[in-house]
Amino acid sequence: MGFDTAYESISEESDSGHRWAFGTGFTDPLAGVDTSVPAGVDGADLAAYCLMLGDDALIMSHRLQQWLARAPELEEETALANIALDLLGQARLLLTRAGTADGSRQTEDDYAFGRAEREFRNVRLAEVADADFAGLVARLLVFSTWRLALLVRLQSSADPVLAAVAAQGVKEIAYHRDYAAQWVIRLGDGTDYSRQRMEAGLAAVAPLVAELFAPSATEERLAGVAVIPAQLRAEFDAVIAQVMAEARLDWPEVGWLDTTEGSGGSSPRAGAVGLFGRGGVHTEAMGYLLAEMQSVARAMPGATW
Amino acid sequence: MLVRARQVAQSVPDPELPMLTVADLGILRDVAVTGTRVVVSLTPTYSGCPAMAEIRAEVASRLGAAGFADVEVRTVLNPPWTSDFISPEGRRKLAETGIAPPRSRTKPTGGPVPLTLFARGPRVDCPVCGSADTVRTAAFSGTACKDLYRCRACAEPFEHVKEV
Predict the structure, then answer these.
(1) Whole-model pTM?
(2) Which of A260, A269, B61, B158 is 20 to 30 Å apart from A293, CA to CA?
(3) Is the CB of A168 less than 8 angstroms away from the CB of B148?
(4) Nearest residue, CB atoms, B49 vs list A19, A89, A178
């Protein structure tokens, strides 16, 4: 059969039951993969960890998708769409892994479209809106640098499914990081005006960085399975410093992250009394994002093509 | 039965690179027969490759049409696909169609992944005229697995399968 046009490929009326379309009716991305939980690993903790990493990818992907038809050039639009697609693929695998790890058999769609804001575990860096393209590449640089350091280590996870998802993701995120770094350098080391915009982009992102390395009890309990985020800091700082030097930019000073109650720190995004995205406490942007992302699934629950 | 099943599974084209079969692309990992059941193992190229569902359906459908009633298509995530899995035949077909095939990949060291800060991309020969005087014009192209180049000798724009 021919697939010369997208229309032909989805409208062809042959071998019924196997045709699919975007949006719903996706097949299980872990079909045929051994999803038993390794001995000694708590399935509920493993599921919670998969939701953290899966939600980071899902929400970041959704924000990137919002750039489609708004990017400055067609090439950048294609780039952002491809990056969003890679992250969506990682999210699908991780959310599906969550539902197999705790035995709940929840699907990727159940998690993506059926949860409320407080149940999402993504870091807040993934959810904030971008003021402009410079803001986007600043956020993508920070996100990719952090996630790449994480996935490189996750390749040796005691959970073979997580290890395999990480090994695939490393190649993808490395490419995303290069893309973002090259744009940060081009804008930072460009004209006075592009430099100002790039500086503003970094300033918007910097207050959300400390949260990426904050400890969580789930990761502590999953020794050998999960990556302890504090261990990523040195690599993260080294990569960011390399990009800043090449871009002739200074990483913005941010108020010290003080998580003691009542102190508030000096950063408006330091987190409410030490609560972050991992604990389900999000920024104002998250509710609007979910309202859009979940609108079709909530209007027509269980609908299929 | 196994030989026949393998022939059918190998012949399935990739919907986004239809000049290549799943065997050329290196995503067909295994075909096995147990009793009357055919088990086909496939590996996705990229985590988000939207063609995977289509390919799985097509494998099952072609085997069904060839008389195999009991077909299971499994996903194999480990080891992950790399562009080195593309067969010599696949590389030849890509070049014939005007898509520059990937070069051999630099093997990862296992440590931190080094940054690539120069945007030029690897040196790729033009699949049309063979000139090495080419320039990368975009880091991404119509599919996740390709980027875009232009030949300065014959002025032809062309796609290149990325080394991953």
Answers:
(1) 0.90
(2) A269
(3) no
(4) A89
